[in-house]
Structures are given as C-alpha cells and as structure tokens.
Amino acid sequence: MMYNDTLQTARSFSAEEIRKDFPILSRPVGKNPLVYLDNAATTHKPTHVINSIRSFYESTNSNVHRGVHTLSQLATEQYESARNIVRNFLHASSQQEIVFTRGTTEGLNLLAQSFTNTVVGNGDEILLSGMEHHSNIVPWQMLAQRTGAIMKVIPVLDDGSLDMQTFYAMLTPKTKVISVVHISNSLGTVNPVNEIVKAGHNAGAVVIVDGAQSVAHTKIDVQEIGCDFFVFSGHKLYAPTGIGVLYGKRELLEKLPPYQGGGDMILTVSFEKTEYNELPYKFEAGTPNIEGAIGLAAAIEYLQQFDMESIARHEESLLRYATSLLEQNGVRIIGIAPGKSSIISFVLDGIHPHDVGSLLDRDGIAIRAGHHCTQPVMKRFSVPATNRASFAMYNTMPEVDALVDSLGSIKSLFA
Ligand code: C6P
What's this model's pTM, rounded to 2 decimal places? Predict the structure, then answer.
C-alpha cells in the first residue's frame, strides 16, 4: 500500500457504499443533490486518493532520483512503487515499459514526435479510426505535415461500430502506424482491439491503443491485447489530473529517440554530446508529477479492492436501464454498437444540446454537451453536438431516473 490507510481486499461491490468514499458526491448543486454523469470528462476522487497526496506532502515531499537524503529516498521509493502498481494493473512485463506522462494527450504527442522519420517517413501511411479523440488525430496530422506521410481513416458504420471490412482493405505494406481508441468517449463503442492489433502486426504496422476511456471500465492486459503502445490519463480513473501513462513494448521504446530533453533523462551531458538515461527515464525529462503518480497508484489500489467485472456489470445495468428509459421517451441515441460501454450520447430533436445541458444543471445534473473533442464523429452523424451521459462505478439507478425526469420536463418546456 502507498501509505497508511485502511483499504480492504476483495471488497464486495455496492454503489451506495462506494459513494461514501467520494466526498464530493454528497455536496449539493443549488438546492439539488449532485447527480454527476460526466465521468468521461473526468471522474471524482475517493478519500484514499486525496489522503495519499496529503500524506505525501505532509511526510515525504521531496524531489525524486536526485537526493541522498531521507526524504528524497522516500519520495523516490513511493514514485517507483507507483510505477510498479501501474505495471501490475496493466499486466506489463517490466517497469521499464511504464512511462509517466501528463495524460493521454501527452502520450500520443510523445509517440508522434518520436516516430518522426524513425517509424514514419515520406509516403508512409498512418491509419486512424473515424471515432478518434482530437488528441489521436492532431499529433498524427502534425507528423504527416513534418514527414509527408499520409493519414487514412477507418470509417464508422451507422450504429457507431468500426467498418472492419474496410479496415482490412486499407492495410498495405505502407501502413506503418495504426492508432485506435479502445472505447469511444463519444459513442461508447468498444473496438475489437485484439483483432486490430493482430491484423496490424501481420501488415508490419505498429499498433497504439488509446485507453483513456477504457481503463476505468474494463480489465486491461496489454500483453493479452498485444498492442505495442497503450496510453491513458489518470483523471478518468479516479486519480488526479496532470498524470497519465504511456505503456510501450521495451524493445520499441529502446529504439525511439527521446521526446523532450532535460534533467533525469540523461546519463552524462557535455556541450559536445549527451548520453541518454535508460528506460523509462529517457522519456521523463524534468521533475515529474510525483504527487500525481502517487495519487494514480492510490486510485488503482482503491479500484483493485473490487472485482473489475462487478464494476463493469454495474455500469452495464445502468447503461441498459438508461437506454431503455430514454428510448421510451423518444430520445435519439447516437451510437448503438453491440456490446457498447457506459456512455450515452443523445439529442433531443429541436433543442440544442447546450440548452439541455444548462437546464439539466438547474436540477443538479451534470452531463457534457458539445462535440466531446471528436468533431469528426459529430460530422459523421450530422449533428453539431450531442448531450452525453457517462457512468462511473458510483452512479445509481435513482440518478438515471433523475436524468430522465429532468429531460421530460425540458421536453415539455420546449413543446
Ligand atoms: N476525453 C471527454 O470528455 P486527456 O485530455 O489527455 O486527459 O485525454 C484525452 C482523451 C483521449 N482519448 C479519449 C478517448 C478521451 O476520452 C480523452 C479525454 C474527455 O471525453 C475530455 S475531452
């Protein structure tokens, strides 16, 4: 355990009980209890995570990898122990494969930068899906502009699933990188990443999985998925903002040039030549987000009290219940792929999503209204924006009822 606290092992799952671990969930919004259904934007933090950060600053705060004094050694131990907790969580084979980043966005930018003229050059092809977050589009576009590489997009079918037939047809010997989202943050689609990895490897491509939306909702085993790289953000996993992880296969990370230069990523520096540090430090220039790594490890410890399958089952029943109520109320749902995860994007015909979002807020209900940083998805489904309810382990059926009731009132108001 990262610090002195009482965590149970093999705790049985109860959303009502879990809510007590998240202090913010008991605050009101206006005169209403908070109904927080914006978990894809960010999740709330349990006391265990909040206390881990407080404890770090109260008892071990120091810089890492730099000092011989007691506090620095303790801080280094905690930081490296956090890395090991992440390694275990992702089922990676070595701690050297776990690079701490600021989040998914930085992980993807790191790869796109380091791939420049090493993995991807002029005329090579980068394959993305049509449901990517902007952070898995723009860095590749910038790479294409730098190198003359070509970006290709796997189409999205009407139900929100990937057009796998076209995907296979798009693979060529020039395909050098495939970067796909595991679970879409705007549609909830769960993509067949194992299949994509296999096909990508057969074509000789490197395969990246954006796990930002999947880590908190499904068991992740990077070796079982077989991907070369996997990125995620702590804040969508009940951990603080500003911390994330890039997992990369060791032999590939070894070959890539560093992303940023500075302290900690070096072995020796002279004005003539710099020798880079070993993995994973080669990719961690500068003083890292120590408290973030500790908070992330605490979030994983918190989550690991529960069986991941019981969390997934609970979220699936919330999804099923909300979907059936919304459909009964004539709400149009965007993204209905079989086996989808706990996200519902929807539109109320004739009412702008921003109005819906603001009116729900008056009832204390938090959802996201907008393009969810996936503008190509909005274009694909011919909507300017959607409303999005996204569930977490602490949401309950009465919260779904509150959402549906409030939407009913909004519809009557506009009728
Ligand atoms: N999506 C949402 O409301 P960062 O911002 O680096 O932590 O994560 C970016 C990101 C990348 N991929 C996916 C699939 C994501 O869901 C996100 C973050 C949030 O949907 C904030 S835009």
Answer: 0.98
